[in-house]
Amino acid sequence: MGALNVTPDSFSDGGRYAEAGAAVRRGLEMVAEGADLVDVGGESTRPGADPVEAAEESRRVLPVVRALAAAGAVVSIDTAKAEVAAAALEAGAAVVNDITALSDPEMAGVVARAGAGVVLMHMQGTPRTMQDDPRYDDVLAEVAAFLRRRAAAAESAGIDPGAVCLDPGIGFGKRLEHNLALLAGVPQLAALGHPVLVGASRKRFIADLLGPIPPAERDAATAAAHVLAVAGGAAILRTHNVVVGLQTARIADAIVRQAPASEG
Ligand code: HH2
What we know:
Blueprint: E1 2-5, H1 20-33, E2 38-41, H2 54-70, E3 75-78, H3 82-90, E4 95-98, H4 107-114, E5 117-121, H5 139-156, E6 164-167, H6 176-184, H7 186-190, E7 197-198, H8 204-210, H9 219-231, E8 236-237, H10 242-257
Parallel strand pairs: 1-2, 2-3, 3-4, 4-5, 5-6, 7-8
Helix pairs in contact: 1-2, 2-3, 3-4, 9-10
The chain binds 6-hydroxymethylpterin-diphosphate.
């Protein structure tokens, strides 16, 4: 999954694709590079980011979603707002990537009625405050329990369980040790019975470990997290650098999956 931020303020690529034409070109480039999904977002969720009104978010993403879908790309819409999701599905998106796991009371119905796929992500707090003082007793158990509950809620709202993907939400209300425990815990999350999405690309935990390297220089470090995520059974990697992401995933997958799981 290629991450395409149609925003002025995203942490890694803020402003680069804020104009629709540039965003569409980058989305098509991601498809040509081998992305199966292009994740279009119009609201930055980096720590401390300001919320965006639905009308502004729609203005940013809809032309991009429409053009990419018309060109044959499989598009996911990265939004927590049912109004934006509904318009994006109408414009041709196939998946809703909801970092709040259906917290908008209208969202589950929108996804169910469209027969769309959905990504349910865990977050503690909101983007504005989530890094202030995140706390867990057992982060992996708590995140797994949350994702299990939200998957059940999606199913009772009429969403096809086969279309539900789970995401531990790396960096969303988590300290370094929480992020590492969740990345190491991908096998336990995969055991919940849904495809697991991991969004580790260029995130702050990398700088926490390696020092203050800028986001655009974090792709090798991202690849290390991706290898382990694939080995742990992750199905989707959300990444900024599709070329590196795909090469990494394919090599890791080939090495890990050559033997039946029962022998591993
Ligand atoms: N991370 C970001 C945004 N959306 N969605 C899912 N499902 N999982 C993630 O880990 C995830 C996500 C943050 O990254 P980015 O889009 O590059 O930055 P920003 O939120 O600043 O736009």
